[in-house]
Amino acid sequence: MDCQPANCCGARVDCAGCEARPLALCGALKAADVQVMGSIAYPRKLDAGKQLIHEGDPADDVFTLTDGMLKLYKLMPDGRRQITGFMIPGDFIGLAYGQSYVYSAEAVTPSTACRFRRSALLDKMAEYPELEHRLLSLASNELAAAQAQMLLLGRKSARERLASFLLGLASRRGVGEGDAMPLPMSRSDIADFLGLTIETVSRAFTVMRKERLISLPDKHSVIIDDHDALRDAAGD
Q: Quick one: 108 and 203 in the same domain?
């Protein structure tokens, strides 16, 4: 795994001051117990483009993203890449149903994650059942997201896919109509996630802008100008 040695493995994390905690696995704990997770957590800092986990490697660690953005992807036998999701602060990464990671995770922007040894986390879950309940909820959300992605790729048009993507990201980030939403991933990454070409994604952005559904202040941000109309465009 890629990390900056000075910023991981030796330091501890400040759970009480973590802004991502309410959305994360450790948010299941009472304030008085929050340092329970801090006692087994280590910060992992990544530069943009660096890997957090690699598909097929032993799933010895799990992570909570506390800052930045990661993209999850799988590689096909012919070398093509399918992005399966974008992780934002509070998301849990590395959940494996066997002994190996089933996807790779790469930093889209400079990012920070809390690293937990899988064995240590399992011990804490046995001691604090609320952690197990929260993990089950996170796994259920992941399954729901996978089902939504199958619908998006299998049934929706290019315009509907992009509209659904923007609405989903805005919902997860808590961004409302008229507010600027960071869009740090490249158009190529969005295309890989939506199963489209870069050209098709760029055209869809242009069409939505002309329809006044969205504004594009710059290449890495978007404003949803008409939420209801964008939802209609998504076919929801």
A: no
Question: Angle at CA 218, nearest 5°, toward 212 and 220?
Answer: 105
Retrieve residue 151's tokens. 């619908």
Tell whether the torsion through CA atoms of 34, 39, 40 and 44 is positive or negative.
positive
Containing domain of residue 129, as a range?
5-152
Length of the chain: 236
d(CA 140, CA 133): 11
Nearest to 163 by CA among 227, 216, 218, 233: 233
In whole angstroms, what is the distance from residue 115 CA to residue 110 CA?
16
pLDDT, tens only, 149-188: 877 777 889 999 999 999 999 999 999 999 999 999 999 9
pTM: 0.86
Q: Are 38 and 98 in the same domain?
A: yes
